[in-house]
Amino acid sequence: MLIRPERPDDVDAIDRLTTVAFEPQPFSDGSEAPIVRALRASGDLTLSLVAEDDGGVVGHVAFSPVTIDGSHDGWFGLGPISVRLDLQRRGIGRAMVTEGLRRLRDQGARGCALIGDPEIYRRMGFTADGALTHLDLDPTAVQHVTFGGPSPRGELRFARAFDAAGH
């Protein structure tokens, strides 16, 4: 399996993969593929990685700028993340996230935040300390990994592409 940056000829495959991967998820409202398209269109898709196996896209992860208390300050958001249904729970998602975090760190980012299941993302180094909030969500779902400096404190806001989905 190869993890690499998205190429223009991957866009349709990423769209299909994201739609299919989230379709059976009870937490999904179907906004994930439109969010990725909107991030790309607005220039907010800072880092877009695909997992390729046998020449096909089997996974995708998006990273985009976030603000904390209104300031970007080198922080990025993780998501959406998609893996082909028949290949889930095999480490592809973790490998893409690990590579994405490495690339962000190498580019001088201060950290990365996400909304997600703490049991899943804790294994990837994310933590929730209650100091980072997002709307009225349970603080344990608002997680971050810090590359250097203090942990973030304040209200997390994602790129505008997430607004239409109520994120």
TrEMBL record:
The keyword GTP-binding belongs to this UniProt entry's keyword annotation: no
Protein name: GNAT family N-acetyltransferase
Domain N-acetyltransferase: 1-149
Name of a matching Pfam family: Acetyltransf_7
Keywords: Transferase
Keyword Transferase: yes
Molecular function GO labels: acyltransferase activity, transferring groups other than amino-acyl groups
InterPro entries referenced in this protein's UniProt entry, alphabetically: Acyl_CoA_acyltransferase, GNAT_dom, MshD_Acetyltransferase
